[in-house]
Design brief:
3 domains, 5% strand, three-stranded mixed sheet
Length: 395
Amino acid sequence: MLAALASGLLLVGLVNQPSLQLVASAVLTAALGVLPAVAAVLGSVRAPGQVGPQLRRAWFYGRLLLVPLLALGIFQVLFAVANPQYGALSARLWAVLADWLARLLDTISVPHLLFLVLCGVGAAGALVTVPVHILSDREARFGEFVRRQRDRVASLGVRRPDFGLTTRRLPDLRKEWLAAVVSFGLLNGLLLVVNMVDIRWLWFGFVPATGFDLTQFVHEGTYVLIFSILLAAGIMLWFFRRNLNFYQPGLPLLRWGATLWVVQNVVLAGSVALRNYYYISYTGLAYKRIGVYAFLLLTVFGLGTLLLKIWQRRSAFSLVRLNSWAAYAVVLLLAAGNWEIWIADYNLQARFPRLDIGFLLNMPPRVLPVLAARAVLISQAKELVVEDEYGVFRP
């Protein structure tokens, strides 16, 4: 559903503004064009030639009778209060009218009406193009590559007077380069130790000890490592945001240090993938485990685009553009798989000591034939469990 919705909005947004480059800009352009498109459709609605004069005549008499009907309603209330017999007769009349309206509403499905209205709004936004230039104009201000900004970073050691009041030293590019080199050096050393520990512990012959909490090992450890990778990407974007990309005396050392850090983060992503693999091997497959691999795929792609930024002086806009389209491609990839069937086939193996039957039964109905074919294996399972929202197994 997400892939279909995103694809439809992308199509509408790019038809509206073909120059758009970001996925988010195309989606927002499609969304922003819906209301103007609906207004344009409603404004262009005209009655047929034969019906038009009759509608105008009915509207004229309706406005003419508005005041008499309002007066009738006021006096109806006054007489019902003043005369009990008339009030009882009026109440029976209103009860009959209310009963008729209740029966009428029972035959009308409000959710279906709202769905039809939503379909009409979506059709208007998809078929009627009202140009929306806000996001395309904003994108036009960004470029693919970093430009040198001479008004923000001064040359080495230059002081600039502040209208005779004070003098202050402008940001020194060499000091910024030194901070970046020290940061990359320290973080590379720290990450090297972490990767050596993971390679020795996880990559070759990992066997969980008795009583080892595999759930905590995967859940908390995976989230922390993913956050560290994202934080590393943010630090790198910060250092390579401006004129440090043009500091020729120290640029080679800085680039190679950053490249080594990217490579080590790819190794760290491999360790996260191994943690996820061990969890699947010992407990079975689930939606989040597949999602972790999809996220790691995007992470590795994002680290590759960071290398482009380092060596080709790509801008942050370029990175957002490339990674947003990669995210859309991953969504399409996830939409192409029959994941429930594959999950059920994988989890219904005799090698698993316990079976989370609640998880399988909560899957879509298309999984039922797979469960029926494995009915004997399910009945012979050593332990049937249900996993609650906290991931704790209970019988």
